[in-house]
Amino acid sequence: MMSDYNKIVVGTDGSKSSMLAVERAAKIAAAFDATLIIGCAYYESEEEATKTLRQDSVTILGDKKAQANLEAGKAHAESFGATKIETAVSPGTPVQALMAIVNANNADLLIVGNRGINSLTGRLLGSVPADVARQSECDVMIVHTVN
């Protein structure tokens, strides 16, 4: 039996397209009276960042920048009616971080923007939305944030 969504995770990297995903997630969280958890990945060092070949996502070094993204994301979500909002930062690639946040919170729904899914690197190396859709054990919604 399908239950309502109680915990919804959305990822942001501070970009305009990720804010569209936050907006959609906020509206869904408001509709289900769910807890919205806004997550952001960060790399702990320049070395970690350069190890990942992915150019389709914003590279965030250190958790200070991640925290700033989350504050902006939280304000954005509130403006679209979400009331129960938590934030989470996690080291690693965007995919690793989102999976860690989903699992730690036992989330029912993960929402990501579609950025990178149609790019050449996205097709060759995988993209954040495609990878989380494969790895996630909860529902994944891919929001059309980039044409």
Give a verbal description of the structure.
With 147 residues, the protein is of the alpha/beta class. It has one domain: 3-Layer(aba) Sandwich (Rossmann fold). The chain is built from 6 helices and 5 strands. A 5-stranded parallel sheet has the order 3-2-1-4-5, with helices on both faces. Helix 1 links the parallel strand 1 and strand 2. The chain is globular and about 40 Å long. It starts with 6 loop residues before the first strand and ends with a strand.
Q: Which helices and strands appear, and what pairs or packs with what?
A:
Layout: E1 7-11, H1 16-32, E2 35-42, H2 46-51, H3 63-79, E3 85-91, H4 94-105, E4 109-113, H5 120-125, H6 128-135, E5 139-143
Parallel strand pairs: 1-2, 1-4, 2-3, 4-5
Helix pairs in contact: 1-3, 4-6
Characteristic key phrases:
147 residues; alpha/beta; Rossmann fold
> How would you describe the shape?
globular
Order of helices and strands: EHEHHEHEHHE
The overall pLDDT, averaged over residues, is: 87
Name the CATH class.
Alpha Beta
* Biggest sheet statistics: 5 strands, parallel
Which structural class do you get from the secondary structure elements?
Answer: alpha/beta
What is the terminal-to-terminal distance? Answer: 34 Å
**Helix residue percentage:** 40-55%
E-strand count: 5
Write down the oligomeric state: single chain
Q: DSSP helix count? A: 6
The CATH level-2 architecture is identified as: 3-Layer(aba) Sandwich
Biggest sheet, spatial arrangement of strands: 3-2-1-4-5
Please tell me how large the radius of gyration is: 14 Å
* CATH H-tier superfamily: HUPs
Approximately what portion of the residues adopt beta-strand conformation?
15-25%
Number of domains: 1
CATH topology: Rossmann fold
Low-confidence stretches: none
